[in-house]
Design brief:
The chain has five helices and five strands; from the N terminus they run ββααβααββα. By secondary structure, it is of the alpha+beta class. It is elongated, with a radius of gyration of 27 Å.
Length: 158
């Protein structure tokens, strides 16, 4: 496939932004050696790629921080009994979605059904979960913010 490998020229430029190594840019061409303008252009391209990568990393980090803050805010609005109810709800859920019967959890844990309903409403209004009542069959719950699992685990370990 590559019969004339020795005719290719390469520039290998590290992508370093703010002292952080983000990758390496490889440029190849077939023909004469790179000129000073080519080298300057590769450095400029590396800077642009690096800045775009940093922007992307910062956006991802900001989104994750926002999710954590939403969950912490939602948890802080719960009373002690509602927090206990939410803990049992997520233990019962076993995944990102499922159907739960509030009366069964209430009987098993020893709290009222209204405490469970209030806790679910608070989490739903915060955008942490989505719930839909199915009457006697129970309540369908879908987790929208999966950070809630880690935060509840951290609270239980404290």
């Amino acid at each position: 496939e590559f019969d004339n490998v020795d005719t290719y020229q390469a520039i290998i430029t590290p992508i370093d932004i703010a002292g952080e190594r983000l990758g390496t840019l490889f440029l190849y061409k077939n023909g004469p050696q790179y000129t000073l303008d080519d080298i300057i252009l590769s450095e400029y391209g590396t800077t642009v790629v690096g800045l775009e990568m940093m922007r992307s990393v910062n956006e991802e980090s900001a989104e994750e921080n926002r999710k954590v803050q939403i969950v912490k805010s939602a948890i802080s609005t719960l009373s002690f009994s509602e927090l206990e109810a939410i803990t049992h709800i997520f233990e019962e859920l076993k995944g990102n979605e499922g159907i739960l019967v509030a009366s069964k959890i209430a009987d098993r844990v020893g709290i009222t059904r209204s405490v469970i309903v209030n806790a679910l409403r608070k989490f739903e209004s915060a955008g942490v979960i989505e719930s839909r009542s199915s009457g006697m069959k129970g309540t369908y719950i879908r987790v929208l913010n999966d950070v809630v699992f880690d935060e509840l685990k951290n609270m239980n370990s404290d």
